[in-house]
Amino acid sequence: MKILMVLMGMEIGGAETHVLELSADLKNKGYDVLVTSNGGVYTKELSEYGIKHITLPLHTRNIFKMTKSFFGLLKLIKTEKPDIVHSHARIPSFILGILNKFIKFNFVTTAHWVFDTSGILKHITNWGKRCVAVSEDIKEYLKDNYHLVDQDIYVTINGINMQKFSPENYANDIIDEFGLSKDKRKIVYISRMDEDRSLVAHHLIEIAPSLLEKEDLEIIIVGGGNDFYNVLNKADIQNQKAGKKYIYLTNARTDIYKFISVADFFVGVSRSALEAMSAAVPSIIAGNEGYIGIFDENVLDVCFQTNFCCRGTKDSTPELLKEDLITLLNADKTKLSHLSNYSRQTIKNHYSVDAMTKVYEKIYESILRVPVGFTDIVVSGYYGHKNSGDDALLSAIIDNIKKLNNSIRFTVLSNNPKETMEIYGVDAIYRFNIFKITKAIKNSKLLISGGGSLIQDATSSRSLAYYLNIIKIALDNKIKTYVYANGIGPINKPKNKSATRKILNKVNLITLRENHSKEVLNEIGVSIPDIYVTCDPAISITPSPLSRVKEIFESEGIPDGNYAVISLRNWKTNAYKKSIIKLSEYINKTYSLNCIFVPMQFKKDLSVCFACSQNGYVLKNPYSFKDIMSIASHSSLVVGMRLHMLMYGANAGVPVIGLSYDPKISAYLKYLNQDYTVDSENCSFDELKSIVDTIMNNYNDIKDKLSAKVSELKDIQQKNAEFAIKLLEDKL
User: Fold this and answer.
1) Domain 172-351 classified CATH 3.40.50.2000?
2) How confident is residue 7, by pLDDT bands cut at 50, 70 and 90?
3) Cα–Cα distance measured from residue 148 to residue 139, given in angstroms and rounded to the nearest whole number
């Protein structure tokens, strides 16, 4: 595999060192690596690793030099034909993004930092089809500011060469070069000495006299930049006041490992901090972005979250730095030894060059396996309509398959593609754009007709025709097709039965959420051998915590206490309304349960919930499916027309009563051995009251049996995802 690395320059810096170490390790593993940039001190090391460097003026926004870089990259890509073009900075990414519109290449970008997104700057940033963030907070920044989706973003680390940065090394030549003492302890600060990076260097010089009062030590500040001479002048003043030189500035250096090797304590951020930790140097994490302090177990999580850059933490101040340095200077050998060992072990566990390279190898293999414009799985269903049940299904399908192979790429057919991409982190296209749908299916490996009751004509024949036609597009293009955990039926019209039979007998695999659906398929003549009864995938979802339920109830003005959930929908007849009004009053008075009316498809269900809520409370705002699931999970009883509300309750072992407007309600509850259903068109209060009394009088026994059945089904449902992987791998 040939990889072209593109960045602004190869001068000293975290991103530059990142590229140097990555390129060297890839080269060592047999990859063909080229680097292009404006050049710099690290080009010599690239040459020593046998890596070719091509110089282009990629470091400036000067329009003439950007034009030169554009044509230089065009020629380079055409000549070298790299498998991957990997950009590591804003200006190169901008140029490559434009170039990628004229010639197609596999474009990857790494975000090493957060960019200014004010004004036009946000719109001149281009990102590759795969993007790498060097920390979780940068990943969130990419999602929030550029609306990149989860499946396009990988998180990597700044890999550290642990042999170069080792406590076994000691650079006597640095001692000799600067006339340092071998006996005095040394504080080493390393950073680019630019105005937006050098704040803590100023702080360190400011507190130097106080530190000198505690101990006769030496301070070494390594780095060059546009603020170097300001820092140097301050250091000279302090040295003059002390009557001796104890603060040393080096300007830019490439032999950073030598300075770290002589350090007793380190101050800085990002890659330099990780290099010091690799050398087992007790470190203080502090920079322009914020202040974390002495690195130990207590700050590990925040260091991970910010990639040791301190973004979002408290401000750096001279007082904080002084306090922590004095703590280190006063620490005994046992404490310092612990900090040293813990620092190096952290690098070994989480920040080795090999671990970093493996992430990039995975990304490169992913983009070659599924090139730009292609996907692994297209998912068809009733998505993007703000229906809690269907939202839960989509989430479960994606999550369960990704648990088995996290590199699988999805494209979802949605009524609201933008929202679907933001929520689920996948690609999405409008469900009625037949041209884009056909192209997406042609460029996929598997179509999943996924979840819910898609194959039925109770809603309309048009709905059935839509889902069958999507499957037909896949069949016509010889793409594997999988009807995934569906509920089938009712299919009433003879022509619909014939169309369903014709299409479904050609698919590769069908899994069903309950036994009744298999009976429907048998009845209409679907006879392919690979039909399995599994379970609805929503059973696998973990709901929001109980604290979220309390938060919602407080905001909605619902009092504390035990409660029952009622979920209704408008249907062809509203005969059930009077019975539900009386039932909610009965439940409240007899069993001291508040009745909470929950609209599952908010805009469509809200009016009927209000119409029946004289003796209860209505959730007046829309909530996520995990929130609604949690509300059902922590209730004492669920009464519902919406199938997935019944599933939400049953998943937590909550007894449920179904108002059956569709055979799927009674069929699924029968599959759960929870056969408490009434016909929504003919339900009476007395019938509902009798069922409630039966449940409440046998509550623990019913709850235990339901929980046991759900536990069994949770194991079965994972087969849905396993089948998908087998189809992708041609093992089924």
Assistant:
1) yes
2) very high
3) 9
Average pLDDT over residues 109-126: 78
How far is Cα 235 from Cα 247, in angstroms, rounded to an integer? 6
Using the predicted structure, report yes or no on whether residue 188 has a pLDDT greater than 90.
Answer: yes
pTM over 0.85: no
Residues 6+ apart with CB under 8 A from 659: 568, 576, 580, 639, 640, 641, 665, 677, 678, 680, 683
pLDDT band at 110 (very low <50, low <70, confident <90, very high): very high
Tokens of residue 635, six digits: 């209730």
What are the percentages of helix, strand and coil residues in the chain, rounded to 5? 50, 15, 35
Token pair listed for 113:
């930092």
* Averaged confidence pLDDT in the chain: 93
Virtual CA dihedral for 218, 224, 228, 234, nearest 10 degrees?
A: 0
Instruction: CATH number for 546-714: choose from 3.40.50.880, 2.70.70.10, 3.40.50.2000, 3.40.50.1000.
Output: 3.40.50.2000
Strands 377-383, 410-414: pairing is: parallel
pLDDT (tens digit per residue) in 242-267: 999 999 999 988 889 999 999 999 99
Rounded Cα distance between 125 and 377, Å, is 29
Q: Which residues pair with 6 in a beta bridge?
A: 36, 87
Give the separation between CA 543 and CA 627, rounded to whole angstroms: 6
Q: Which residues pair with 3 in a beta bridge?
A: 33, 84
Instruction: Supply the pLDDT for residue 407.
Output: 86
From the CB of residue 10, how many other CB atoms can be counted at a distance below 10 Å?
27
Structure tokens at 633: 């999970």
Cα separation of 398 and 388, whole Å?
A: 16
Q: What is the DSSP letter of 114?
A: P
| pLDDT at res. 451 | 76
For the residues of 507-519, what is the DSSP string, one character each?
SSEEEESSHHHHH
Domain at 373-533: CATH code: 3.40.50.2000
pLDDT, average across residues 289-301: 96
Q: Where are the domains of the chain?
A: 2-155, 172-351, 373-533, 546-714
Encoding tokens for residue 427?
A: 């690609």
Q: Which token pair is 321? A: 């730095």
Closest-CA residue to 576 (of 458, 687, 682): 682
Say if CB 283 and CB 273 are below 8 A apart: yes
Q: At 283, is the secondary structure helix, strand, or coil?
A: strand
